[in-house]
Amino acid sequence: xxxxxxxxxxxxxxxxxxxxxxxxxxxxxxxxxxxxxxxxxxxxxxxxxxxxxxxxxxxxxxxxxxxxxxxxxxxxxxxxxxxxxxxxxxxxxxxxxxxxxxxxxxxxxxxxxxxxxxxxxxxxxxxxxxxxxxxxxxxxxxxxxxxxxxxxxxxxxxxxxxxxxxxxxxxxxxxxxxxxxxxxxxxxxxxxxxxxxxxxxxxxxxx
Length: 207
Fold this sequence. Notes:
Number of helices: 10
C-alpha cells in the first residue's frame, strides 16, 4: 500500500472510529440534547484538543509511562472517573434549574468539559500509543513527527464528526427546551449516562 493510500485508509478508519458508540460521542450527544448547539460544539473542540496532547505524548514516547506503570494509569483513571462523577452530580442537581442550565450554555464551559474528559482518560493514551504506529511506515525517517501528523489528522476528522453529531443532537434540544418537565427528565437521564461513563472508566483496565 502506497503512502497516499495509507493516509486515505487511515482517514476512513478515524471517521469510523469516531462514529462508533463510545464514551466521547455519547457524551457529545447528551451535551447537544441538554445544553444545545453552542456548548456541544465546544465540547467537541475540547475533545479534539485533547487528541493533540495524546498524539504528542505517543509520538515522543511519553505515553509509555502509562503503559508500563499501573500506578500512573490508575491515578489518571481515578481523576478522570472523579471528574465524570462530578459532572453527573452537577447535572442531576441542576436538572430543575432551567435558568442555571441556560447560563451554563457557554463556550468555555463546554471546551473545558471536553478537554478534561479526554485528557483524564488513560485508555485514550494507550489507544493512541497502539493505534498510530500501525499506520506509520517502517521506512519513515522521522517516526515521531510522522505519528504526530497522524495525530493531527485524527484530531481534525474526529472533531468534524463530533461537531456534526453536536449539530444533529442539538436539534432535539430546540424541540424539547420548551417542555420543562421533559427537559428535567432528560437532564436526569443525562446525569445517569455520565455517571455510567464514570463507572466504566473507574473499572477500566490497561488490557
